[in-house]
Amino acid sequence: MVAGFCSLAAAELVSALVRPEAGPVTAVGGAVIDRSPAALKEFAVRHFGTGDKLALELGIVVLLAVFAMAVGVLALHHRRTGSAAVLLFGAVGAVAAVGRPEGSAPDALPSVVGAAVGAGVLFALTGRLTTAPPRPPASGSESESESESESESGEAYRAFDRRGFVITAAVATAVSAGAGLLGRRLTSSVQAGATASRHDLVLPVPDSPAPAVPSGTGLNIRGLSPFFTPNKDFYRVDTALVVPRLDAAGWRLRIHGEGVARPLTVGLHDLLRREIIERDITLACVSNEVGGPYIGNARWLGVRLADLLREAGVRPPSAGGPADQLVARSVDGMTIGTPVEAVMDGRDAMLALGMNGEPLPFAHGFPVRMVVPGLYGYVSACKWIEDIELTTFDAYDAYWVRRSWAQQAPVKTESRIDTPRSLASPKPGTVPVAGVAWAQHRGISRVEVRVDGGEWHTARLSAADNRDTWRQWVWEWPATSGRHTLEVRATDGTGATQTGRRADTVPDGATGLHSVVVDVS
Length: 521
Description:
33% of the residues lie in helices and 23% in strands. It has eleven helices and 20 strands. The strands form five sheets. The protein has a five-stranded mixed β-sheet with strand order 4-3-12-7-8. Strands 5, 6, 9, 10 and 11 form a five-stranded antiparallel β-sheet that branches.
């Protein structure tokens, strides 16, 4: 265990000098995520929510502790073999780090150095446990008796250099703790520049501001989700075990590929000099189960992506363009494929710089991310974006498509009951049943609620902001005593009603009706 701690601490220090994502726990965790089947990923999101990454890292640390104890037992009997096992595990970490989409040869260093330190500490500690031959006969009757006993047993005795072991372990632990803390300090100092660049970024006044939110958009009902989701509460579902922290001054975006007549490379200040738009847009994750929490509404500030593409000479397929897919790449290696037609059909697809009146939080893509109304995030919402390549769906499968998800995924018409909560116990009488409904880029025209499978009752809708945002609703239920099941369904702006057929999130989003069971008493 001591050797394992020393190994991780040394790797922490080296990863601060290389890059934080190259640390062995992060690298192995990333490799596990990349190779996990869609069903396992969905299990993690379903049961751990946005804490799925923490659960994975804790699981890796637990496995490391078990591995360390097993290797420790092995090293007591086979000293060199035990140390070699540590080096083998370091090789696994190195391969995982270099094999990441954004990996490079230097990323192997934290795992290699950490393994070397761990192997050395383990070898030194086990050296304090030595096997000695039987003691030679001693003079005196008592000594002769003891010698006879030892000779009869024929066993060697194990001498434990207690003082040497404690000193070696203490020194190794102290030095490693210092190295680990130094690594954290170095990482923080490197990230300080990114933090300062976000703090210093002054968002411009939009050239095309969002229309004022109509009166009555929020119903002000207790337990109902607010119309705008605060940044701190906005859902986060991605594969980044370490949130990238980019310095805005050094950020660049490259636009290239098939059908790009004039390749572009732009920085943040280039974007700030362009026409800035402001729009209210609801984002949803395809991993959101029926009635799930992975949806949020925000006011976004940014630059129209279609304008940049046209400047680069890109034409949509409907105008004869050869590329039908836009592949966005993140600094962490994520790839997201978006239909070119959707980006250039007039909707407010943007490279977003701001979120709810402030620069993007690091966890949500600072300094720049993609936002495309009407599409699930896995085919549109690339965070920490650094590259856009124009290609075709036939030529390239993005990250999630290679893991059983659909190439294209428009948001489905959905609705959710926020209040009363499942298993709540309201009193008989009028009970407000309220929630949200969404069908981005189509809008919501009607919401209905029913009790115990009976007739559908039309709910009262809040005022509509625009067709790219969710809409609140409420139905005043004359509740009677007993256990009841409440269900909700929505109809979008095209007249299509939400299906009641249950389907899983894979491959292109869950379907079915959200329901809650309450006990009125």
